[in-house]
Amino acid sequence: MAYSTDWHIAFKRTAIKLNGGASGPGSVRGALADTQGDFYDTATDAPNNSVFLNATANSELAAFNAVTSTVGLSFAEDRNIPYIKGDGTDAGWWLYNGPPAHTVSANPDQWWLIKSATADSYAKFNVTTIVQASRDITLNLFIQSKADNTFSTVASPWTAAIGSAGGSKCFDIDSAAEVDCTTIDWDIKIEVTGQAWNIWTNGGVSGRGDGGAFGPFNTADIADYINGQNSPGGTNITGMYEQDSSSGLFKDNTWYAYNLEGNSKLWPNYRVYAIDTGAGFYKAQLLSYYDQAGVSGNHTLRYAPLAEANLSSTVTVALTEWAVIPNKSTVNAGSVTFNAINSGPVDVHELVMIKTDLAPDSLPIDDNGNVDTNDAGIILIGEIEDIAVGANAQATFDLEPGHYVLICNIWDAGEQEAHYAEGMRVAFTVQ
User: Fold this and answer.
1) 16, 109, 317, 354: which sits with the fewest CB atoms below 10 Å from its CB?
2) Residue 310 scores a pLDDT above 50
3) Pairing relation of β-strands 425-430 and 330-331?
4) Alpha-carbon distance values, 249 to 16, 92, 120, 271, 337 (Å)
5) CA-to-CA distance for 291 and 293, rounded, in angstroms?
């Protein structure tokens, strides 16, 4: 079942997953359509018991019926989240310099402690260099093996030579060497997939081991950690290591509250969720976790399609290597919302809307193959920039009747690629 695209939503006790991203091979995504905010205290976010205990499927039908459109919703697939942060900011292990260069570099002032998959050896490390084009990533690791009580004072450098196509490399603390990622012996994994640069530890959603990480620390503070078990003040920190975790619509926006009456029961909050199956949009609301006999693990939900008529002013555009694929090629003049989805599988994309009578493959370009949006033959309407793989973003434009072209106009200096020249362009009509 996990390898099938036939299913859209799966239930395992309280966990609910969608068939997309980290949870399945499909392209199903979800968004929160109604938070049911009155079920929670606005100051503390604690459950409002009186609201929960008095709510019923009938009383919350109005909230379900009120959701009629996906406009303004932010859809996302289920995904795994590394504890060791890498998001391009100063808080992560790599830094991102935005357009037009889109360069990635190391952030050596960020350090982490890691625990091995067998939880009996440790290391502290930082990332010292990144060669973006070849995806070569070098770490300095100060290792505390099973036989040691302190970190080594001599660094063990390791370069994960990922390669320009992306992939993953793994390292074992005890052997201080690179190992095959298909084995159970790895302790730290570096993975580059398109614009996603991640470091994983062997535990949680990332592996079968008991590994984890603790941090981050700056260069001055990490110097005071002499081993992986204790803080500089002598406090035992072995319980502070965290594992990689999962994230998704139902994990980030829970559908229930627990133990409101001290009887270990679950109570639904009747939030309304929007589901994009790839073939259509639906809304869903969880009604109960119990059958009529009170047996747990028996989910009841109601769902209904979100009618296309309600989406007539919305255009969903898939961006992929190498195509721009709108779900409709013609709309009526007026206010139109474009929901751009980066289907990847590798690159960051953008959606640029141009009004022109020129053919999609005949737009004026510069020496790199990018469209010259200042040329007299085209009118730049607007754009949605830097959409990461698996993400989506929206923008609304007031459109007059005429001929348009939708393009991705990114120039990737590292890959020497102009996305427009690679084929990311399509005609679009406003009538």
Assistant:
1) 109
2) no
3) parallel
4) 9, 24, 35, 11, 23
5) 5
